[in-house]
Amino acid sequence: MFHEHLGKTMEVYIDDMLVKSLKKEDHIKHLEECFEILNQYQMKLNPAKCTFGVPSGEFLGYIVTKRGIEANPNQINAFLNMPSPKNFKEVQRLTGRIAALNRFISRSTDKSLPFYQILKGNKGFLWDEKCEEAFGQLKAYLTTPPVLSKPEVDEKLYLYVSVSNHAVSGVLVREDRGEQKPIYYISKSMTDPETRYTMMEKLALAVVTSARKLRPYFQSHPIEVLTNQPLRTILHSPNQSGRLTKWAVELSEYDIEYKSWVSMKAQVLADFLTELPVLGTPEQPENQTWKLYVDGSSSKQGSGVGIKLESPTSEILEQSFRLLFNASNNEAEYEALIAGLRLAQGVGAEEVVAYCDSQLVVNQFNGDYEAKDLRMEAYLEVVKSLSKDFKKFELIRIPRGENTTADALAALASTSDPELKRIIPVECIAERSIKTDKEVLVVTRSRAAARERGEPEVELPPVKRRKSKKHNKEPDILPETVIETEPIIEDDHPEPDLEPNEHPEPEPRVFHEIDQIPAKDWGADWREPIKRYIMTGELPKNKWQARKMRIVSAKFCLSKDTLYKRGVSDPYLLCIFGPEVEIVVREVHEGLCGSHASGRAMAFKIKRMGYYWPTMITDCVKFAQRCKRCQLHAPLIHQPSELFSSISAPYPFMRCSMDIIGPLHRSTRGAQYLLVLTDYFSKWIEAEAYASIKDSAVNTFIWKNIICRHGVPYEIVTDNGPQFISHEFEAFCSEWGIKVSYTTPRYPQRNGQAEAANKTILSNLKKRLSHLKGGWYDELQPVLWAYRTTPKRPTGETPFSLVYGMEAVVPAELNVPGLRRTEAPLNEEENSAMLDDSLDTINERRDQALIRIQNYQQAAARYYNSKVKSRPFFVGDYVLRRVFDNKKEEGAGKLGINWEGPYIVTEVVRNGVYRLKDLEGSPVQRPWNVINLKKFYV
């Protein structure tokens, strides 16, 4: 009814209506518009419940004024005049009145906690001093309740959240002329499991609770969450819990930004943030020491490290990394310690005590052991450099039995231990943590002397060092050896990602045919906008693109400047772009372990390998389509590609089809072939047997059996046999004015009438022959007679009757005489008159037969066309042609290709028929049907 006025001059909620005006002189006009609509729908108002011309009034239980939304005085007075409860029922009445005013009460759950504890459980009623104190504080608070503000359209709103031991709370505010005014207070008591959440999870729960309760505000306004905690970083962290991932996806629907909160600009908001050590400056506990437990593992299946970091408040972070390079036990121990120190730096720890069960690592760091190996020395320098960033750092050796958690995490990364019951994200360390300036080369005294003499150096194979049986000792280098260094790790060829149970090779295999990858303009990196949003909160300027970015980015996380996508079936997928995509796709499709799979199957396999980019399926499908080997070995196409095309004739022997059957079993007279001609209209068949069929025999057959008996036909349809494409046959037809139409090669369905006649003749011959197969020559004429005197389904008539105007006398009438044999000879004049009448009505019978033929063809077309999948080609398209037996690879057998080419379409002869040429420009002799062609993707 009032849809045109809602939000402008009216507000309606069920049966409550409010007419509002900014100017007093416009109010009467707005009321008139409202009353006109009410009269139109024949609705009446109760005058006792109407109030007109007031600057403020009650609406939906609240007092609406020009200052904002105020609590109902009646509800306030009812609470202030309420005495202290004396039983459970009065406590329930008290909590009900508080619930009606929750919107105006800051941290209402915390203030009302003593009342809720009385109602919890089956304890006896006890109103103690704590309850009385809370009751008095609430009365004092509600003596001057806050006035809530109303936000403007598209105005940015601010959300403050707080956390206590039992509740999460929030307040939504707006800025008006530099002052922050509250819009809505929310509060929620935590369940028993929620009270055991970490502090970050409780803060996230406060934001999620606010978004759920204030959904209309979050949907229609940009929200800025003000907190001094790294909420946005935590929600996009790859190490977050499952519930944080779920909340991050839920919050991605809204336009939310996270920023550090500033000083309060209103006393009501300052009251909200009192007693909140979480949002203010954190109280520093007496013990500021973080405990770090590290361990490394190296086995045949691979190498891994495990880290356990425990905060001063007993919060635990656990991480597991798989090393994508060969590492000894000592190197794995050092990698674990380095990764743990970097994690401690990331969380802002200042005092760290590290525990490690490696005697070598601990003693080398403390100076008890000397680092004689270059790699151990390089690792030691990295550890010492990282330890200087802490105010206090200590490395202590502990027995392996006291380091079980880190040991299990390391085993998880290296061997995927099935005994672990917890789900820990396993990440990867692709490169060593150490880099020296030069590669390790061994220069002996003889080589040094050769250098001095200026002799050319001979490249030596890399020195293979035998691992010591004891993991805490490294082999010494001979004193007379001179060491020079070159780069150990080459960044230009990073080691490939390995599966969790795959053992890394000594030298990582580079994807083959990398040099053959064509240069391609990949455009802008799709990962960069998501990275910028996660790191800095930068959003596109377009409103809808910004909203999409917030929704999409919730499914991604950033780790050391590397973007990962949270998968549904897989924990994390590495996001790749550009040449990396080409390398991965090519390797999976046609690499050493490639199976030339289809596009979708290849995309799912790549996803299972741990990679992701937005257009995975599309790119994989296109790559598989363009693979030449896949195209040449693709399955043959049997589904029809063009609509049903029928050929008909309006009168007998206007259009005929001709074909050859054979070679058959040599007959008693030496014949092996049958030349068959079928009339399209009457289905009449003429056939003769030959020892061999040449073009002269075809000409004689047409002269004797067709022209001399039935007249000159208009058209003959035949295939591309040598007898039919000869110059002599074409000259004979041209002399008699007969049009010759040829079907496309290797497509017998185009000459379907001839194929159907051949099938019928062969079927009848088989049934008449016993073990003497050469007797088919003697059975040919009886088969033709039987065919000509049998009604055909398309016409409903026998071929004999459509040609001669009456039915033939068959042998059965000789043995059992019918009316024609018994009555007709008695009256010759009447018999002649009946014959004349039959000949006079022959045209009518032929017309009816033609209608039945057309109905039959339409029914066949409906059935055939239901299975057609159109595959049109155009001039210039590249196509492959089906390989037939005479062109198959010699000796290939079933391993040969199914298609050959490619060819280029040069002409569209008609629907489904095309002329081709090869890549060298030589035209293919005859047009080809689409059933034998397949699109080639370049």
Folded structure, characterized:
This protein has about 950 residues and is an alpha/beta fold. Among the domains are: about 70 residues, Alpha-Beta Plaits (2-Layer Sandwich); about 120 residues, Ubiquitin-like (UB roll) (Roll), CATH 3.10.20.370; about 200 residues, Nucleotidyltransferase, domain 5 (2-Layer Sandwich), CATH 3.30.420; about 190 residues, Ribonuclease H-like superfamily/Ribonuclease H (Nucleotidyltransferase, domain 5, 2-Layer Sandwich), CATH 3.30.420.10; about 60 residues, SH3 type barrels (Roll), CATH 2.30.30. About 35% of the residues lie in helices and about 20% in strands. It has 31 helices and 32 strands. The strands form 8 sheets. Strands 15-14-11-12-13-16 form a 6-stranded mixed β-sheet. Strands 8-7-6-9-10 form a 5-stranded mixed β-sheet. A 5-stranded mixed β-sheet has the order 25-24-23-26-27, sandwiched between helices. The longest helix has 24 residues. The two termini are about 60 Å apart.
